[in-house]
Amino acid sequence: MNHWLAISGMMLLTVLIRASFLVFGQRLAFPEWLNRALHYVPPAVLSALVVPMALAPAGTVDLSLRNAYLPGILVAALVAWKSGKTLLAIVVSFVVYGLWRWGLLPG
Amino acid sequence: MSPQTCSSRRALLLEGVRDTVPMLVGAAPFGVIFGTLAIAAGLSSATAIGMSVLVFAGSSQFIGVSLIGAGTALPVLWLTTFVVNLRHALYSATLLPFARDWSLAWRWPLAFWLTDETFAVVEHRFRTKGAAGGQWYWLGSSLAMYGNWLLWTVVGVSLGQSLPGLANLGLDFAMGATFAAIVAPQLKHRPALGAAVAAGVVAMLGRGLPYKLDLMLAALAGVLSGLLLEQWARRKEQAA
């Protein structure tokens, strides 16, 4: 197989999908219902990325105390919810995650 | 160009870089693992690095090298790339209202760099602080992700062998924490909360699905739930 040909095709498809709507600019105005629908893309996609990482970081559901992802991600969400400060939430969650993983539960 | 606009552009660019830093930590191990996997799958150093330079899409690159290594026919490889990347069309549509007036010379390269991570960071910024001068912010986030991905790909390629334990270091937590911190404040409105819950449930149920279809299905379920809840709330309001 020609690897460069394979990669060129992958590049073309990836950039075309990413540009699919952006490239239209002012020539594309969405109907009102679609604009409303797009508001839910960020909460939906981000939750779809986060929830499995929190509940099943290694692929299978893990609600045990050894799963440091769960408390870490819950703290990130709670601090961001209360304070509205993204950076603060991330830093606090790192501390919780780090302590949980390497401090509280050795071995 | 006045010196003032020049410095505000630089400030926006740097803010984009700064807000993306946690994502860089999260993506780093994947860059290294990709580099080692690509070499193991039989790619040369040049093609492995070339894939990160030209494709710049983590999930498709991982699946791509495993298909190339298995000698898969090109149409299958390309169809898989297409399906794995479908969710990016949602990002493209969501960001269009902010980017409508920018020139094509901006929109093409920014689209090329549109990853999950940059989407999360940029959309959050535009929704909460407006999109004035947002191209520079988006560019900053993009260049940070791109440079980071290339750097760690090169590291992985030069190691050329897998590092046991790298995937289990838990650095991907940085990405999860950032996504969680970005999404949580949006959930104060009930339809958005419903969208998040529906997407989370579908993502959990669909974990085994190939081609990132779990993510696509979860996104669609979430959007649909949000719309229905919004409709329902509006109807109740009108009835009251």
From TrEMBL, chain A:
InterPro entries in the cross-refs: Brnchd-chn_aa_trnsp_AzlD
Transmembrane segments: 41-61, 73-100
Top-rank lineage group of the source organism: Bacteria
Keyword tags: Membrane, Transmembrane, Transmembrane helix
Transmembrane helix found in the keyword field: yes
Keyword Transmembrane helix: yes
The protein's name in its UniProt record: Branched-subunit amino acid transport protein
Species of origin: Aquitalea magnusonii
TrEMBL record, chain B:
TM region positions: 21-43, 63-86, 136-159, 165-184, 191-209, 215-233
Record localization: Cell membrane
A GO CC annotation given for this chain: plasma membrane
Keywords: Cell membrane, Membrane, Transmembrane, Transmembrane helix, Transport
GO biological process, one term: L-valine transmembrane transport
Membrane topology: Multi-pass membrane protein
InterPro entries attached to this UniProt entry: Brnchd-chn_aa_trnsp_permease (IPR011606)
Chief localization: membrane
Family as reported in the entry's similarity comment: Belongs to the AzlC family.
Name under which the protein is recorded: 4-azaleucine resistance transporter AzlC
Originating species: Aquitalea magnusonii
